Amino acid sequence: MPELPEVETVRRGLAEAMEGRRINQVLVRRTDLRRPLPGNFAEALEGQTITRLSRRAKYLLICLENETVVLAHLGMSGRMVIEQGTDAETPARKHEHIVFVVGNGTVIRFSDPRRFGLMDLTTESSLASHPLLANIGPEPLDDMFNGPALVQRLKGRKTPLKSALLDQRVVAGLGNIYVCEGLFLAGLSPRRSAHTVGLGRANKLVAATKKVLQEAIESGGSTLRDHVTATGEMGYFQHNFKVYGREGEACPVCNNEIRRIVQAGRSTFFCASCQG
DNA sequence: ATTGGTTCCTGCTGGC
DNA sequence: TGCCAGCAGGAACCAA
Description:
Elements: H1 4-18, E1 23-28, H2 41-45, E2 50-56, E3 59-64, E4 68-73, E5 79-84, E6 96-102, E7 106-111, E8 118-123, H3 147-154, H4 161-166, H5 176-186, H6 199-218, E9 259-263, E10 266-270
Antiparallel strand pairs: 1-6, 2-3, 3-4, 4-8, 5-7, 6-7, 9-10
Helix pairs in contact: 1-6, 3-6, 5-6
The protein binds a DNA duplex through loops.
């Protein structure tokens, strides 16, 4: 499931292949993604040169010379994979929904079996107020995301800390894996009520979250099932998970058994003795 | 205002 | 061994 490190890894790969190149062709095979693809999607992009590949939260932003911005979310199972010199039209793979042809024959294939992903069009000037981005919290790797800011954002929230961190309005780009890992590294209980996190704990949590995200990006993200980089390689941060997916295994710090609980319908993995 | 529940979709898993 | 119901999961949306 692509979270910030996976999307960032994909972004870096796509930047290499797409920046400065002209979009020569866009094939749309399906328009019924998480939200309907804009009707003019292909026409709006064809002929435009890509100026920059950017990212906000878990959204990829493909910026074009005429100020158009493609907003792309990979959902649960989305992939963006680069191929050189293959035929864009064939083979027609089952879950391949959109294909971009850029420059002299570079093909970028967006596939997404579960179709929780989406693409939309906006412009540079209305990007920040786009409905999907308008209410999203700070980038976790930005200096704006710090202890005091986190305390402020958790104020008044009575949900468990774990659930609050998954809320994209609190902080952007985190998902189940990196929230579990960050809480473990910070030594904080996922069950703690969010508003009880004061400056000391918030500082620890911010530092832990940044560390986990940075290390994951350096590892090319985590590949559980679907994630591959834009060049088709697997990430390998999953080998560094301390608690995620490790129910019943020994905590790497204290050797107690790692537990799994369900919060707001999502699995939480944690060590009850390290995460007081 | 905040929060819990539902929904979208498909591949995988576990139980029989 | 094979089948199928049920689940997982990001986030918008709705209802309370």
